[in-house]
Amino acid sequence: EDQVTQSPEALRLQEGESSSLNCSYTVSGLRGLFWYRQDPGKGPEFLFTLYSAGEEKEKERLKATLTKKESFLHITAPKPEDSATYLCAVQAGIQGAQKLVFGQGTRLTINP
Amino acid sequence: GAGVSQSPRYKVAKRGQDVALRCDPISGHVSLFWYQQALGQGPEFLTYFQNEAQLDKSGLPSDRFFAERPEGSVSTLKIQRTQQEDSAVYLCASSLVVGGKLFFGSGTQLSVL
User: How far A79 CA lies from chain B's nearest CA (Å)?
Assistant: First the structure.
């Protein structure tokens, strides 16, 4: 069974204090790893897709990286508006299987 | 509309009642998903449609859960004889093409008393 585990469950940072969120996965045949941001009362919002080990993607203060066992979401010099829950998800298995398996999320709070 | 629209936004049901949750995907989007999100957890897959065809319903927790998308656009998730454990946020998502970027709605928060 495909499993995704995120750590830490919650993280508080001061504005400008860089850190990383971890997503560990155990799947049969990874086809894609996804990062989403979710604000309270809203649905998840797409951030990145990574397809193979060694791949990196960046968007503003966020950078996602991928290895064969885990992914990291690095946040550099965060601002209060980066506060949200960050979700990691994998798509795996046979070609054509479209579902995503999500981790439980990391709740990030950036204090001004 | 500009995004995925779900209604109602909130639904309170008495245990044993039937409920119907509606999803209006972005116009022209081929793929449509339903996910269930318990408080403090990540979304869990329920079912997947490609146009009007329900290609994967492996995540539906019991035969009380039923989803349809008869004309390949609007979808309805129906839960019969609701139980307290059905209380959760039900999220709908759509993508333009198969395997494309998912756009989520804001969800329907279902509370079963």
Answer: 23
**Which of A1, A85, A90, A99 to probe the B interface (max B CBs under 10 A)?**
A99
Chain A residues 40-59 within an 8 A CB cutoff of chain B: 41-46, 49
**Cα separation of B52 and B68, whole Å?**
8
Query: What's residue B19's pLDDT?
Result: 98
> In whole angstroms, what is the distance from residue B37 CA to residue B9 CA?
14
- A102, A3 in Cβ contact below 8 A? no
Q: Which of B28-32, B65-69, B86-90, B99-103 has the lowest mean pLDDT?
A: B99-103
Q: Do the beta carbons of residue B68 and residue B76 sit within 8 Å?
A: yes
In sequence order, the β-bridge partners of residue A68 are: none
Structure-token pair, residue B34: 């339903």
Provide the pLDDT confidence category of residue B95 given band limits of 50, 70 and 90.
very high
Which tokens go with B110?
């279902």
Query: B24 Cβ partners below 8 Å, 6+ apart?
Result: B1, B4, B5, B6, B7, B73, B74
Instruction: Please report the sign of the dihedral spanned by the C-alpha atoms of residue B71, residue B73, residue B74, residue B79.
Output: positive
Residues B4-29: tens digit of each pLDDT: 999 999 999 999 999 999 999 999 99
- Residue of A43, A31, A38 lying closest to A90 (CA atoms): A31
